[in-house]
Design brief:
The protein has 14 helices and 34 strands.
C-alpha cells in the first residue's frame, strides 16, 4: 500500500512539472529590459507585478519563470498563466477566471436565502469573487451540511453555472429539500436496573409526540444526543452506579434517508451505597458548621448531585470568611466486595483574599452606579461569599437583566487579591402594551399602558396606564426613584383618575376619583423596607339613571363630592432569587391606609404572602395568600368606593380570581339586592370592605424552550371572594377557578395569555374565560 501511495505522488508531481515546463519553455538567460502583461480584464497589472519575483534589470532564468507562474496561480485569479519573451521583454500571458456576478437559490424553504449566502461567503464563494469549481463543490457540501444540521438528510443540491457578459458567471443552486428525517427508534442496550421507557424519559430527543411540530424533539442532533447521554450518565450516578459507562453509540439512517435509529450501549456496573462520610483537611476550626452543610446521607445510594451540592456549599462557606480560593475534593474509597463506598471530603481553604476591584460588564444602557449601589461586597474589603451572593440577587431583583453571572479572577503578581466582574445581559425594560379581555357581558375591553422601569438607564421608573373600556376608564401616571437619597430611600409619586360608568346610556350615573400620593421607602435591611407616605383623593358621584342604593346612601351621608387625606404605611420583605422569574424565596408585605382629614374617616389594610418553591431545576410552585380589611372610623361609614374588588387577569394573576370579569365579584348583599329586583344577571358589583384571595401556580419553561425564563407556561388554581363590612368571611360564598396560560417576553413585547374555567360560581357572576395582554418592548 505504501509503494502505491509513493507512485501516485510521484506521478502527480511529474504532471505538475510538465504543466509548468510547458507554460515556461526553456529560454536562455537574458537581462529583462521590460515586463508586459497580456490578457487582463479586471485584475490590476500592479497585482501581477507585485506577485512575480522578477523585476526590470534582473536576469531572466527558468527558475524565476517557474516561481512566477506558481505565484500567479496561487492568487486564485487566473485559470491559465504562460510566460514568453521577445527582444528582452518578458511577456506574462494570463487568462482570468470568470467572476461571480450573482449567487441565487431556488427551492429553499427551511433557510432564509441571506443565511445561506453567509454560509457560502464563509467558504469563499460570493458576488464579485473569482469563480472556482473547487469552491463550488465545497459550497454544495456546505449547503448540504446546513440541511443535515436540520435533520434533512435527503437534500439534493444541483449547481448551474451561466456565463454572462464581461467574463462573469451566474451561480444558481437548485435545492430539493425533501422531508425531515425523523427519529423512529431509540434503544438503550445493557440497561436492566431501570426500564427503557424510564430512561428515555430523561432525553430531550424522542420518537415524536403531539408537540413535535413545535419542539422538533424527533429531529436528530448530535449535540442534543450528547446532552441526552450526559443526562443518562448523571441519572445513573445519582442512583449509586459509580462505575456506569456508555460503551458506544450507533446512529443509523434508513435507505430513503427519512428515518433514523439510535442505539446506545451501556454497562451499568454495580450499585454502591455510602457507608461513611469523613472530613479531612483544614476547616478553619469550624468543623461542626461545615458538617451541617453535608447533604450526603450514609446508608443511602451514592448520589453525585448530593456530592456536588456539598462540595459547592463547602467552597461557598469558605468564601464567607474571605477564602476565595477554597476548594473541596470528594475522594471515594470503593469496596467492591460489599458494594459500599466511603467518601472523604478533603478541604483546603488556600489563602484569604481581598477584593481589589469590582467590574461591571454588559450594561450598554444601564448606568454602572445603578448596579454598583446594589452591591454589599465593597472594594478593598475582605472577600465575602455571602455578601457577593446577596449582591448578585439584589441586582437580579431589579428585573433589568435576562442573565447575570459573577466571575472571580486572580490579580496577576499578587497572592491575596481578586477582581470581581458582574456580567449582565440587558433586557428591554420599557413597554408599550395593549390588553384585551373577552367576557360574556362587556365583550371586548381594551387597555393601553406605557412603562419604563429603567428610564434612561438611571434605575428610575416612569409609567402611564390607560383603560379605554366603555365601562371603566382609567388614567394613571407614576414615577419611582429607588435611590431618592444616597442611602437607598425611595420615592414614588402617583397621579390617577378613574371613572366607572357601568351602563352605556348617556344619562346613566358615573363615579370619578382623582388622587395624588407620594410614598417613601426606607430600607432597614437588605430584604426589609418600610413605606411611609400620604396623599389626597377627591371622589365625585355623578347622578344619573340606575344609581345604586349604596351610592345614593353614601351621597346622602357625605354629599356627591368628597375629599380624603389618607396616610399610608407598609412593610415589605423580599427574599426571592430573581425579579424576572423567581424560583425560590418569599415576598411578605403589610400595607395600611388611614384617612385622618377631609370628609371621610376610614382605615384599611392588606396582608399578603407569596412563597416560591423549586419543584425541580425547571419547575416552580408559586403560592399567594392575601387578606384585605376596611372599616369606617370616628362613627362614619366605610366609603363604598374604597371597597376591594376581585376578578380579571390581575398582576401576573396573583391577588385575583381569574375566570371572572375584572372587578365583577359580588358580596351577599349585592346578590340579594339583584334577586329582590327580579334579576340575578344585572347584579351591580361595587366590591366589599373585605377580600380574601388564594392563588397557586405551577410554572415551567415551555416545552421545547429549554430553560428559557422568558417563555413559560403555567397551570393555576384561584379561590377568593369579597364581603361587606358587616358580613363574615364564608367559604361557601367564595368563587374558584382553574386554568392554564402562557407568559412570554417576546421580541414584540411581553405577552400573557390565560384561559380559566370557573369551578365554583354563583348566580349573576360575569364570566371571562380568556384574557390576554401583549405589548412592544424597547
Amino acid at each position: 500500500m505504501r509503494l502505491n501511495s509513493i507512485f501516485v505522488l510521484r506521478a502527480v508531481a511529474a504532471v505538475v512539472a510538465g504543466i509548468v515546463a510547458q507554460a515556461a519553455f526553456a529560454l536562455d538567460p537574458f537581462p529583462v529590459r521590460d515586463i508586459r502583461v497580456e490578457g487582463l480584464q479586471r485584475v490590476e497589472a500592479g497585482t501581477v507585478f507585485a506577485s512575480i519575483p522578477v523585476r526590470v534589470g534582473d536576469t531572466y532564468t527558468d527558475e524565476k519563470a517557474v516561481a512566477s507562474i506558481r505565484a500567479l496561480f496561487a492568487l486564485g485569479l487566473f485559470k491559465d498563466v504562460r510566460i514568453d519573451a521577445k527582444d528582452g521583454v518578458l511577456i506574462v500571458i494570463v487568462e482570468e477566471r470568470p467572476t461571480i456576478a450573482n449567487v441565487d437559490f431556488s427551492g429553499t424553504k427551511e433557510f432564509d436565502k441571506d443565511v445561506l449566502k453567509k454560509a457560502l461567503r464563509d467558504v469563499g464563494l460570493a458576488d464579485g469573487r473569482p469563480y472556482d469549481k473547487a469552491l463550488v463543490d465545497r459550497a454544495e457540501q456546505e449547503l448540504k451540511r446546513q440541511y443535515i444540521s436540520k435533520s434533512m438528510y435527503a437534500t439534493e443540491v444541483v449547481t448551474t453555472v451561466t456565463p454572462v457578459d464581461r467574463n462573469r458567471v451566474n451561480l444558481s443552486f437548485a435545492v430539493t429539500e425533501g422531508d425531515t428525517a425523523k427519529i423512529k427508534e431509540i434503544h438503550i442496550v445493557g440497561a436492566s436496573a431501570f426500564s427503557e421507557s424510564k430512561l428515555l424519559d430523561l432525553f430531550d430527543q424522542d420518537t415524536g409526540g403531539w408537540l413535535s411540530w413545535y419542539t422538533k424533539s424527533n429531529r436528530y442532533s448530535r449535540t442534543k444526543l450528547n446532552a441526552d447521554i450526559e443526562s443518562l450518565r448523571s441519572f445513573y450516578l445519582n442512583q449509586g452506579y459509580l462505575e456506569f459507562k456508555v460503551d458506544s453509540t450507533q446512529v443509523a439512517i434508513s435507505p430513503d434517508k427519512q428515518g433514523m435509529s439510535i442505539t446506545i450501549n451501556v454497562t451499568e456496573g454495580d450499585r454502591f451505597v455510602v457507608s461513611k462520610i469523613k472530613m479531612a483537611g483544614n476547616y478553619l476550626g469550624k468543623d461542626d458548621e461545615f458538617r451541617s452543610l453535608i447533604t450526603i446521607k450514609a446508608g443511602e445510594a451514592y448520589n453525585a448531585d448530593q456530592v456536588a451540592q456539598t462540595t459547592k456549599a463547602f467552597s461557598d462557606y469558605y468564601g464567607n470568611f474571605g477564602f476565595a480560593f477554597g476548594r473541596v475534593e470528594a475522594k471515594t474509597d470503593i469496596d467492591r466486595t460489599t458494594n459500599r463506598v466511603e467518601i472523604t471530603l478533603v478541604g483546603d481553604p488556600a489563602r484569604r483574599a481581598y477584593v481589589r476591584r469590582i467590574n461591571v460588564a454588559g450594561n450598554d444602557r444601564t448606568r454602572d452606579e445603578v448596579i454598583r449601589r446594589e452591591f454589599r461586597q465593597l472594594e478593598a474589603s475582605w472577600y465575602d461569599g455571602e455578601k457577593i451572593r446577596q449582591s448578585r440577587n439584589r441586582v437580579d431583583r431589579l428585573g433589568y437583566f435576562k442573565e447575570i453571572s459573577m466571575d472571580t479572577q486572580e490579580v496577576p503578581g499578587t497572592q491575596d487579591e481578586v477582581d470581581l466582574t458582574i456580567n449582565v445581559v440587558e433586557k428591554p425594560t420599557g413597554s408599550i402594551s395593549l390588553g384585551a379581555g373577552i367576557s360574556s357581558s362587556e365583550g371586548l375591553g381594551l387597555t393601553f399602558g406605557f412603562n419604563q422601569d429603567n428610564a434612561f438607564g438611571s434605575g428610575n421608573s416612569l409609567g402611564l396606564s390607560l383603560n379605554t373600556s366603555q365601562y371603566n376608564r382609567t388614567l394613571v401616571l407614576s414615577t419611582t426613584n429607588p435611590y431618592f437619597t444616597e442611602d437607598g430611600v425611595s420615592r414614588s409619586i402617583n397621579l390617577a383618575q378613574r371613572t366607572s360608568k357601568p351602563y352605556t346610556d348617556v344619562d346613566s350615573y358615573a363615579i370619578r376619583t382623582t388622587g395624588a400620593s407620594v410614598v417613601f421607602g426606607v430600607p432597614f435591611t437588605d430584604v426589609d423596607t418600610v413605606f411611609l407616605g400620604g396623599g389626597v383623593d377627591q371622589t365625585d358621584i355623578i347622578p344619573g339613571t340606575y344609581l345604586p342604593t349604596v351610592y345614593q346612601d353614601f351621597a346622602n351621608e357625605f354629599g356627591y363630592t368628597t375629599t380624603a387625606l389618607p396616610l399610608t404605611a407598609g412593610w415589605s420583605r423580599n427574599t426571592t432569587d430573581s425579579g424576572l422569574a423567581p424560583s425560590t424565596g418569599r415576598i411578605s408585605s403589610l400595607n395600611a391606609e388611614w384617612s385622618v382629614a377631609g370628609d371621610l374617616r376610614y382605615v384599611r389594610g392588606t396582608a399578603q404572602l407569596q412563597q416560591y418553591f423549586p419543584l425541580s431545576k425547571r419547575t416552580t410552585l408559586a403560592l399567594n395568600g392575601e387578606i384585605s380589611l376596611g372599616s369606617g372610623t370616628d362613627g362614619l361609614s366605610y366609603p363604598v368606593f374604597k371597597n376591594y374588588t376581585s376578578g380579571g387577569l390581575g398582576n401576573r394573576g396573583l391577588g385575583t380570581v381569574r375566570g371572572f370579569e375584572s372587578g365583577s365579584l359580588t358580596t351577599t348583599s349585592q346578590r340579594l339586592a339583584a334577586l329582590a329586583a327580579g334579576s340575578s344577571t344585572s347584579t351591580t358589583a361595587t366590591g366589599g370592605a373585605k377580600r380574601v384571595t388564594f392563588n397557586a401556580e405551577v410554572l415551567s419553561p415551555f416545552p421545547g424552550g429549554g430553560n428559557d425564563r422568558t417563555l413559560r407556561w403555567f397551570g393555576f388554581f384561584d379561590a377568593g371572594g369579597v364581603y361587606d363590612a358587616n358580613e363574615s368571611i364564608q367559604v361557601d360564598s367564595m368563587r374558584a377557578s382553574v386554568g392554564i396560560g402562557v407568559s412570554w417576553i417576546s421580541p414584540v413585547g411581553p405577552l400573557r395569555l390565560a384561559w380559566a374555567k370557573p369551578v365554583r360560581q354563583l348566580d349573576g357572576d360575569k364570566i371571562q374565560t380568556l384574557a390576554f395582554q401583549i405589548g412592544t418592548s424597547f
